[in-house]
Amino acid sequence: MNGLFGQNRILTIADVSQLHEKIHLAINSQLRQERAAQCPQADAIFFGMTPGEVDALFLRIDQMAMLDLLSTVEAHLRMDFQNRVREKRKDALSRQFRSVAKRRHHRIRLKEDILAGWSEHYQGSKVSINDFNAALKVRDWLAHGRYWVPKFQPGYNRIVVRDICNNLAQALFPPS
């Protein structure tokens, strides 16, 4: 993960997961240090925060991780779409993607165009695609300001979303 920022590359799921794990560990460590101090200092990060406010902070960090993970996978899917169109691959999925690209130009939709194509041509990946589609509701809610009551299933956190992203990546892009 050296040089994570400033590199001209798309991060991997592992990069993003490790980064957020380090953030989580660092904040937990700071919290333990401050709680262990005999007399808390006014410049301490958690000084004056209630347990509920600390919990809300960790929830917000989890939300940032989920958004980051889902966005990373979306970037990889969009890059794969562009590569298939540009390279004019001969498989059925690539031909479908070229047809979509001609019809929709630069307005390619993630669910309706990219994921639907994968689901149609790679039946074995349907469960992973459906799980990822469900998690995209979390992404939409996080990315658009959380101003409505979410309609997704409870229980999403950075670990669950990381596993969903990894499962999708393994289903669509198995290691060679």
Which features characterize this protein?
single chain, 176 residues, mainly alpha, 6 helices, elongated
Could you explain how this protein is built, in words?
- The protein is mainly α.
- It has one domain (13-172).
- It is 68% helix and 0% strand.
- The chain has six helices and no strands.
- It has helices spanning 13-36, 51-87, 92-104, 110-121, 126-143, 158-172.
- Helix 2 crosses helix 3 and helix 5 (126-143) packs across helix 6 (158-172).
- It is elongated, with a radius of gyration of 20 Å.
Chart the SSEs and their pairings.
Elements lengths: L12 H24 L14 H37 L4 H13 L5 H12 L4 H18 L14 H15 L4
Q: Brief overview, please?
A:
The chain has 176 residues and is mainly α. It has helices at residues 13-36, 51-87, 92-104, 110-121, 126-143, 158-172.
Helix content: 55-70%
Low-confidence stretches: 1-6
Number of domains: 1
Distance between the termini: 22 Å
Secondary-structure element order, N to C: HHHHHH
Please compute the radius of gyration using only Cα atoms: 20 Å
Largest sheet entry: none
Alpha plus pi helix count: 6
State the total count of DSSP E strands: 0
How much is the average pLDDT? 88
Strand content: under 5%
Q: Structural class, judged by helices and strands?
A: mainly alpha
Any idea what the shape is? elongated
